[in-house]
Amino acid sequence: MRRSAIALTLGLSAGIVTAPAALADTPDTPSCLGVVTAQRAVAHHDIGDHASTQDEPRLGLGNVTRLLLGDDAHIGDLGALLGEIDEDAATSCP
To answer: Can you give the pTM of this predicted structure?
Structure first.
């Protein structure tokens, strides 16, 4: 009986913890920033400095995405935008 109660408690806890992630808005282009960044890095070899080499404080990609594209935008949406506006045939998000 005690094991059943523990199992039920753990199961309910797992459901409560994972439910918000399951209900989150899924982006149309979830990995687009990584795709476009990798394409540019391979084509031009001009990407690769670690963020710690930049000035502090940094705004952050998520904040930049929301500033440019609105509160509901995701980082992948920023990648799709950058792949479109850079006029570079080597970068695009499928």
So the answer is: 0.64
- Is 11 contained in some domain? no
The answer, yes or no, to whether residue 36 has pLDDT greater than 90, is: yes
Domain of residue 56: give its range. Answer: 26-85
How big is the chain by its Cα radius of gyration, in Å?
A: 20
Query: Quick one: pLDDT at residue 64?
Result: 95
Cβ neighbours around 83 below 10 Å, total = 22
In whole angstroms, what is the distance from residue 30 CA to residue 52 CA?
25
Name 40's Cβ contacts closer than 8 Å, sequence gap at least 6.
Answer: 46, 47, 86, 88, 90, 91
Summarize pLDDT for 40-80 with one digit per residue, the tens: 999 999 888 887 888 888 888 999 999 999 999 999 999 99
The structure tokens listed for 24 are 């989150």
Question: What secondary structure letter does DSSP report for 31?
Answer: T
Q: Per the structure, how many domains does the chain have? A: 1
